[in-house]
Amino acid sequence: MAHTEASVPTKKRILQTCVRLFLMQGYQKTTMLQILEGSQVSNSSFQNIFRAKDGVLAELVDFMFAYQFGT
User: Fold this and answer.
1) How much is the pTM?
2) What is the tally of structural domains in the chain?
3) Where residue 40 falls among pLDDT bands split at 50, 70, 90?
């Protein structure tokens, strides 16, 4: 899915919020409401980018492995 320039800052805010929340309280205890409020995005904006919370986790894992192993 192609991302517009307008969605890049939104995506970055969501990822930053999720990293902070996942580290503080874990993936399981982090709610969608916390993610939406912390990143200041609507549910529809979130779903346009990631579909669900596990989409964020998958992107973060992909990023970490790509950075770690250069893939």
Assistant:
1) 0.79
2) 1
3) very high
